[in-house]
Amino acid sequence: QSVLTQPPSVSAAPGQKVTISCSESTSKVGNNYIYWYQQLPGTAPKLLIYDNNKRPSGIPDRFSGSKSGTSATLGITGLQTGDEADYYCGTWDSSLSCWVFGGGTKLTVL
Amino acid sequence: QVHLQESGPGLVKPSETLSLTCSVSGDSISRFYWSWIRQPAGKGLEWIGLIYSSGKFNYNPSLKSRVTMSVDTSKNQLSLKLSSLTAADTAVYYCARDRGYPDFWGQGTRVTVSS
User: From the CA of A67, how many Å to the nearest CA of chain B?
Assistant: First the structure.
Protein backbone atom coordinates (compact mmCIF):
# COMPACT_ATOMS: atom_id res chain seq x y z
CA GLN A 1 0.00 0.00 0.00
CA SER A 2 1.44 3.34 -1.10
CA VAL A 3 2.07 6.06 1.44
CA LEU A 4 0.78 8.47 -1.22
CA THR A 5 -2.92 8.15 -2.02
CA GLN A 6 -4.42 9.33 -5.29
CA PRO A 7 -7.95 8.95 -6.66
CA PRO A 8 -8.03 6.13 -9.22
CA SER A 9 -9.69 8.29 -11.83
CA VAL A 10 -10.91 11.78 -12.64
CA SER A 11 -12.71 13.15 -15.65
CA ALA A 12 -13.70 16.49 -17.11
CA ALA A 13 -14.74 18.01 -20.40
CA PRO A 14 -12.39 19.64 -22.88
CA GLY A 15 -11.56 23.20 -21.91
CA GLN A 16 -12.43 22.61 -18.28
CA LYS A 17 -10.16 22.39 -15.24
CA VAL A 18 -9.39 19.30 -13.21
CA THR A 19 -7.47 18.71 -10.00
CA ILE A 20 -5.77 15.52 -8.87
CA SER A 21 -4.98 15.06 -5.21
CA CYS A 22 -2.09 13.26 -3.59
CA SER A 23 -2.43 12.67 0.12
CA GLU A 24 0.22 11.35 2.44
CA SER A 25 -1.22 8.48 4.46
CA THR A 26 1.51 8.33 7.08
CA SER A 27 3.76 10.80 8.82
CA LYS A 28 6.85 9.33 7.23
CA VAL A 29 7.16 11.59 4.24
CA GLY A 30 7.44 14.71 6.29
CA ASN A 31 8.16 17.95 4.54
CA ASN A 32 9.65 16.45 1.41
CA TYR A 33 8.78 17.88 -1.96
CA ILE A 34 6.12 16.30 -4.19
CA TYR A 35 6.71 15.56 -7.84
CA TRP A 36 4.18 14.88 -10.59
CA TYR A 37 4.57 12.71 -13.67
CA GLN A 38 2.39 12.29 -16.75
CA GLN A 39 2.33 8.94 -18.50
CA LEU A 40 0.63 9.01 -21.88
CA PRO A 41 -0.60 5.62 -23.12
CA GLY A 42 2.27 3.36 -24.12
CA THR A 43 4.99 5.83 -23.18
CA ALA A 44 7.42 6.46 -20.34
CA PRO A 45 6.51 8.83 -17.51
CA LYS A 46 7.40 12.47 -18.05
CA LEU A 47 8.17 14.98 -15.31
CA LEU A 48 5.43 17.61 -15.06
CA ILE A 49 6.03 19.31 -11.72
CA TYR A 50 9.04 19.28 -9.40
CA ASP A 51 9.61 20.71 -5.93
CA ASN A 52 5.82 20.93 -5.34
CA ASN A 53 5.09 23.68 -7.84
CA LYS A 54 7.85 24.18 -10.41
CA ARG A 55 7.51 23.32 -14.08
CA PRO A 56 10.40 21.97 -16.12
CA SER A 57 11.22 23.76 -19.32
CA GLY A 58 8.66 22.96 -22.00
CA ILE A 59 5.76 22.16 -19.67
CA PRO A 60 2.89 24.55 -20.37
CA ASP A 61 1.52 26.73 -17.59
CA ARG A 62 -1.81 24.89 -17.90
CA PHE A 63 -0.19 22.49 -15.45
CA SER A 64 0.31 23.62 -11.86
CA GLY A 65 1.21 22.08 -8.54
CA SER A 66 0.59 23.00 -4.96
CA LYS A 67 1.14 21.48 -1.53
CA SER A 68 -0.37 22.18 1.82
CA GLY A 69 0.49 20.11 4.86
CA THR A 70 0.29 16.45 3.93
CA SER A 71 -1.65 16.96 0.69
CA ALA A 72 -0.56 18.00 -2.76
CA THR A 73 -2.61 18.88 -5.81
CA LEU A 74 -1.97 18.83 -9.52
CA GLY A 75 -4.13 21.24 -11.49
CA ILE A 76 -4.71 21.14 -15.21
CA THR A 77 -6.63 23.93 -16.95
CA GLY A 78 -7.87 24.18 -20.50
CA LEU A 79 -8.15 20.41 -20.77
CA GLN A 80 -7.28 18.85 -24.10
CA THR A 81 -7.90 15.32 -25.34
CA GLY A 82 -4.12 14.97 -25.48
CA ASP A 83 -4.02 15.32 -21.69
CA GLU A 84 -5.65 11.89 -21.30
CA ALA A 85 -3.02 9.97 -19.37
CA ASP A 86 -2.10 8.46 -16.04
CA TYR A 87 -0.72 10.93 -13.52
CA TYR A 88 1.54 9.93 -10.65
CA CYS A 89 2.76 11.82 -7.64
CA GLY A 90 6.02 10.85 -5.99
CA THR A 91 8.27 11.81 -3.14
CA TRP A 92 11.26 10.67 -1.09
CA ASP A 93 10.35 8.70 2.02
CA SER A 94 13.05 9.73 4.46
CA SER A 95 12.25 6.98 6.95
CA LEU A 96 12.72 4.23 4.36
CA SER A 97 15.37 6.09 2.33
CA CYS A 98 13.25 5.15 -0.62
CA TRP A 99 11.39 6.92 -3.40
CA VAL A 100 7.63 6.25 -3.31
CA PHE A 101 4.90 6.85 -5.87
CA GLY A 102 1.17 7.24 -5.54
CA GLY A 103 -1.01 4.62 -7.16
CA GLY A 104 -1.71 6.84 -10.15
CA THR A 105 -4.80 8.66 -11.42
CA LYS A 106 -6.29 8.05 -14.84
CA LEU A 107 -7.53 11.28 -16.42
CA THR A 108 -10.31 11.02 -18.96
CA VAL A 109 -11.20 14.04 -21.05
CA LEU A 110 -14.81 13.46 -22.00
CA GLN B 1 19.41 16.44 -24.90
CA VAL B 2 20.05 13.38 -22.76
CA HIS B 3 18.90 10.04 -24.15
CA LEU B 4 18.52 6.84 -22.13
CA GLN B 5 18.12 3.43 -23.74
CA GLU B 6 17.37 0.32 -21.72
CA SER B 7 18.21 -3.09 -23.09
CA GLY B 8 17.74 -6.61 -21.82
CA PRO B 9 16.68 -10.19 -22.59
CA GLY B 10 12.91 -9.71 -22.76
CA LEU B 11 12.15 -13.19 -21.42
CA VAL B 12 13.77 -14.79 -18.40
CA LYS B 13 12.99 -17.95 -16.45
CA PRO B 14 11.80 -18.06 -12.84
CA SER B 15 14.60 -18.27 -10.26
CA GLU B 16 17.12 -16.83 -12.74
CA THR B 17 18.86 -13.44 -12.57
CA LEU B 18 17.78 -10.54 -14.76
CA SER B 19 20.48 -8.31 -16.22
CA LEU B 20 19.57 -4.98 -17.77
CA THR B 21 21.69 -2.20 -19.21
CA CYS B 22 20.90 1.48 -19.63
CA SER B 23 23.01 3.36 -22.15
CA VAL B 24 23.22 7.11 -21.59
CA SER B 25 24.02 9.58 -24.33
CA GLY B 26 23.99 13.36 -24.42
CA ASP B 27 25.29 13.72 -20.86
CA SER B 28 28.02 12.33 -18.66
CA ILE B 29 26.92 9.57 -16.36
CA SER B 30 29.29 10.97 -13.75
CA ARG B 31 27.25 14.12 -13.25
CA PHE B 32 24.08 12.67 -11.75
CA TYR B 33 22.47 9.90 -9.80
CA TRP B 34 20.59 7.32 -11.84
CA SER B 35 17.46 5.41 -10.87
CA TRP B 36 15.78 2.20 -11.94
CA ILE B 37 11.98 2.05 -11.76
CA ARG B 38 9.60 -0.66 -12.91
CA GLN B 39 5.93 -0.91 -13.83
CA PRO B 40 3.93 -4.13 -14.10
CA ALA B 41 1.41 -4.09 -16.92
CA GLY B 42 -1.63 -2.02 -15.98
CA LYS B 43 -0.17 -1.12 -12.60
CA GLY B 44 1.70 1.71 -10.94
CA LEU B 45 5.35 2.65 -10.63
CA GLU B 46 7.78 0.97 -8.24
CA TRP B 47 11.17 2.50 -7.51
CA ILE B 48 13.93 -0.12 -7.47
CA GLY B 49 16.88 2.01 -6.44
CA LEU B 50 19.47 4.54 -7.45
CA ILE B 51 23.22 4.70 -7.94
CA TYR B 52 25.88 7.34 -8.32
CA SER B 53 28.99 7.07 -10.45
CA SER B 54 31.08 6.68 -7.29
CA GLY B 55 29.22 3.47 -6.61
CA LYS B 56 27.12 4.91 -3.79
CA PHE B 57 23.67 3.36 -3.98
CA ASN B 58 20.29 3.17 -2.32
CA TYR B 59 17.88 0.28 -2.89
CA ASN B 60 14.17 -0.17 -2.21
CA PRO B 61 14.00 -2.08 1.10
CA SER B 62 11.49 -4.48 -0.41
CA LEU B 63 13.94 -5.50 -3.16
CA LYS B 64 17.37 -4.84 -1.69
CA SER B 65 18.18 -8.49 -0.99
CA ARG B 66 17.88 -9.25 -4.73
CA VAL B 67 19.16 -6.04 -6.38
CA THR B 68 22.61 -5.06 -7.54
CA MET B 69 23.29 -1.86 -9.47
CA SER B 70 26.51 -0.73 -11.05
CA VAL B 71 27.90 2.03 -13.22
CA ASP B 72 30.44 1.84 -16.04
CA THR B 73 31.69 5.36 -16.58
CA SER B 74 33.92 4.33 -19.48
CA LYS B 75 30.87 3.18 -21.41
CA ASN B 76 28.42 5.72 -19.92
CA GLN B 77 26.20 2.82 -18.91
CA LEU B 78 24.29 1.62 -15.86
CA SER B 79 23.43 -1.93 -15.05
CA LEU B 80 20.74 -3.60 -12.99
CA LYS B 81 20.75 -7.17 -11.77
CA LEU B 82 17.71 -8.69 -10.08
CA SER B 83 18.02 -12.22 -8.76
CA SER B 84 15.62 -15.02 -7.81
CA LEU B 85 13.02 -13.89 -10.30
CA THR B 86 9.34 -14.74 -10.00
CA ALA B 87 6.33 -13.89 -12.15
CA ALA B 88 5.80 -10.85 -9.92
CA ASP B 89 8.94 -9.31 -11.44
CA THR B 90 7.31 -9.18 -14.87
CA ALA B 91 7.23 -5.47 -15.75
CA VAL B 92 8.54 -2.68 -17.91
CA TYR B 93 11.85 -1.55 -16.45
CA TYR B 94 12.89 2.08 -16.80
CA CYS B 95 16.15 3.86 -16.09
CA ALA B 96 15.99 7.54 -15.26
CA ARG B 97 18.32 10.42 -14.58
CA ASP B 98 17.97 11.45 -10.95
CA ARG B 99 18.59 15.02 -9.79
CA GLY B 100 17.15 14.39 -6.35
CA TYR B 101 14.13 13.15 -8.26
CA PRO B 102 13.78 11.14 -11.48
CA ASP B 103 13.54 13.82 -14.12
CA PHE B 104 14.24 12.17 -17.45
CA TRP B 105 13.26 8.58 -18.24
CA GLY B 106 14.23 6.08 -20.87
CA GLN B 107 11.53 4.45 -22.97
CA GLY B 108 11.68 1.27 -20.90
CA THR B 109 12.29 -2.38 -21.67
CA ARG B 110 9.69 -5.07 -21.16
CA VAL B 111 10.70 -8.11 -19.12
CA THR B 112 8.59 -11.25 -18.81
CA VAL B 113 9.40 -13.91 -16.25
CA SER B 114 8.08 -17.23 -17.48
CA SER B 115 9.24 -20.78 -17.99
Answer: 17
